[in-house]
Design brief:
511 residues, single chain, Aldehyde Dehydrogenase, Chain A, domain 1, alpha/beta, Aldehyde Dehydrogenase, Chain A, domain 2, five-stranded parallel β-sheet, globular, seven-stranded mixed β-sheet
């Protein structure tokens, strides 16, 4: 693919938005439906980032067929050679980091410092995964019989379908595509309709680095028209979804019908516990970043702060004062602290939950309103919102909001805090602020979560550790680190008998 076919659109909106096509079998092609949709800047809806294909089942079928053909050759490329291409692609991402980050801010709204971090996470993942091309270790083990050799190796699955979210539109595709390709799989990826350009930019780096045609294919569009036929396609061997628990149930059930491997990374309702002995300044910084970073639109966002009663009021007063000082606006402005909601629907969901919290009797200490005047007139902006004296059973303390809304809950001690923290359907991330090492390790043991931070907020995962959660956060698979290869490979056991006679395992035993 020539990188000039779909150049980035960094900067001010042009008078004529660029039209982007699907990428299938190494070619840019229009959707079979003949329909398109607009990718709009949530900070300024007058800015059309691009026009993308509103695809259907025929487009998915074509992409899967291309990936299936490419798999026959790609799986035979030695893993170290595949990894060298990934390394080259990562270097290209590094060269284009600023342009791709600005595109990302335009299409999903989070501030430029954060989109640079998103792109950097893809870069970090690429360099890490490239190293795994020489380390996809199996193991040897002694046979129970003489003159017999036993070992196991990893093998690729085939065509993998990937359905990615809008909140980390380059980092999360990198979690999926890099290990899948290094393992020898091919892929069809459906980007979130709010952020397709970042996936196009990411795949541009891959193809410019030399990934062969058909190995990676992009089909844009909506869930029912693209996600469903991709999930149900008989030639797709695995589906990796990052999205809501509601969609995860549907995808998981569909995959089960054909015994398709399925990785689900779903919702969170993440607690941050602040004990009386905590470094309050550090905890406040963490709370502000965890709750309002990415406008609260992270599956790991700090949506509940559980505060021991001895420091409860002091912590609340300072948190509210700092939340009120956050600058809200267009994320391309380096001085802005928090951008908009990704779209009108998400903004309306946030406002609905704010109304629910007030109706339930929680005390709204700040925020709670849409910003729609002056520089905010053409975007989906909300004030950072802090609720206090929240009962742990209230809906705002139980359900994922995915916005800049945080619930503060008083607790008696660590045991009480852990009970509150675990009392939700999710279990992705968790955090504890304390200076007591004994209490820290007790929390590490007892918190029901896939990730626990000590003296850090609930956000900040690193690419070489496993990422995922428990309970309704997912179905047990992990992204990041070597855990990703457990999903994208099959174990194959191999026995080589050089005894030159029939040996019966478990039967031919010496007396």
């Amino acid at each position: 693919m020539a990188s000039t076919e779909h150049a980035t659109t960094t900067g001010k909106a042009s008078t004529k938005p660029k039209v982007y096509r699907n990428f299938i079998d190494g070619e840019w092609v229009e959707a079979s439906t003949g329909e398109t949709f607009e990718n709009v800047n949530p900070a300024d809806t007058r800015d059309i980032v691009g026009i993308f294909q509103k695809s259907g089942k025929k487009d998915v079928d074509a992409a899967v067929e291309a990936a299936k053909r490419a798999y026959a050759k790609w799986r035979l490329v030695p893993a170290p050679r595949r990894a060298e291409i990934i390394y080259k692609a990562t270097a290209i991402l590094e060269q284009r980091k600023e342009a791709y980050s600005q595109d990302m801010t335009r299409e999903m709204g989070k501030v430029i410092k954060e989109t640079r971090g998103d792109t950097q996470e893809a870069i970090d993942t690429g360099y890490y995964m490239a190293g795994e091309g020489r380390r996809m270790f199996g193991h040897t083990t002694p046979s129970e019989l003489p003159n017999k050799f036993a070992m196991c190796v990893r093998q690729p699955l085939g065509v993998c379908g990937m359905i990615t979210p809008w909140n980390f539109p380059m980092a999360i595709p990198s979690w999926k595509l890099f290990p899948a390709l290094i393992a020898g799989n091919t892929a069809v990826i459906k980007p979130a309709q709010d952020t397709p350009l970042s996936v196009f930019n990411f795949v541009s780096a891959l193809t410019d680095a030399g990934v062969p045609k058909g190995v990676v294919n992009i089909v844009t569009g909506f869930g029912s028209m693209v996600g469903t036929p991709l999930t149900e396609h008989p030639d797709v061997r695995a589906i990796s979804l990052t999205g809501s628990s509601e969609v995860g149930r549907i995808v998981g059930a569909a995959c089960a019908q054909s015994f398709k491997r399925c990785s689900l990374e779903l919702g969170g309702k993440n607690p941050m516990i602040v004990l009386d002995d905590a470094n309050l300044e550090l905890a406040l910084e963490g709370a502000l970043w965890g709750a309002f970073g990415t406008t609260g639109q992270r599956c790991t966002a700090t949506s509940r702060i559980i505060i021991q009663k001895g420091v409860y009021r002091k912590f609340l007063d300072e948190l509210v004062a700092r939340a009120k000082k956050l600058k809200i606006g267009n994320g391309l402005d380096e001085s802005v602290d928090m951008g908009p909601a990704v779209n009108k629907k998400q903004m309306e969901t946030d406002l609905e939950y704010i109304a629910i919290g007030q109706k339930e009797g929680a005390k709204m200490l700040c925020g709670g309103h849409r910003l729609d005047k002056g520089e905010h007139a053409h975007g989906w902006f909300l004030e950072p919102t802090v609720f206090a004296d929240v009962d742990a059973k209230m809906r705002i303390a139980q359900e994922e909001i995915f916005g800049p809304v945080v619930s503060c809950i008083p607790c008696n001690d660590l045991d009480h805090a852990v009970e509150i923290a675990n009392g939700v359907a999710y279990g992705l991330s968790s955090a504890l602020y304390t200076k007591d090492v004994n209490r820290a390790f007790k929390a590490i043991r007892d918190l029901e979560a896939g990730i626990t931070y000590i003296n850090a907020p609930t956000i900040g995962a690193e690419v070489h550790l496993p990422f995922g959660g428990v309970k309704q956060t997912g179905n047990g698979h992990r992204e990041g680190g070597i855990g990703a290869f457990d999903f994208y490979t099959e174990w194959k056991a191999i026995y080589v008998d050089y005894s030159d006679r029939l040996q019966k395992a478990q039967i031919d035993r010496p007396e």
